[in-house]
Amino acid sequence: MNGRENETFETPAELVAISGALDALGERERASAPAGMEARVADRTAGMLEAPAPLVFTRTVRTLAYRVAAVVALCGAAAVVYLGTRPTPLPGGGPEVPNVRLVSTLEDDVDLMLALRGHDPVGERIDVLFSDTAAVQDSLRRIGDELLEGDSL
To answer: For labelling, which of 13, 17, 120, 129 has a CA lying 20 to 30 Å from the CA of 34?
Structure first.
């Protein structure tokens, strides 16, 4: 009787005492069961069951889709890193250019900025950037010289 009629059921007044006594008896029975009794009962009655154990199906499609997506993402990231670090020959260089520089130095960047100064109206900003770079370089040299001499900052 697990229907909606149980939601509004009230115990009659003459049965309240009996209901309380049965609840107390059930509580004592549950508390008095020895440890491991449930496992022993399950072991002894497992052979009496006529139905086989239920098969459990999991959602392997979703898990497989996530794994495939992870592999694709890892392969894509590896391809981007590999292709990003490969040297690219200059136009007209052809395959006979085996060694192409991968990293430009600070001096190359400064030379590029100075070369762009004449073509771009932002030459003043490049001049300020160049002078700031020179000032930082001078201060780092001065600090390094002081440290080599043993002076504290």
So the answer is: 17
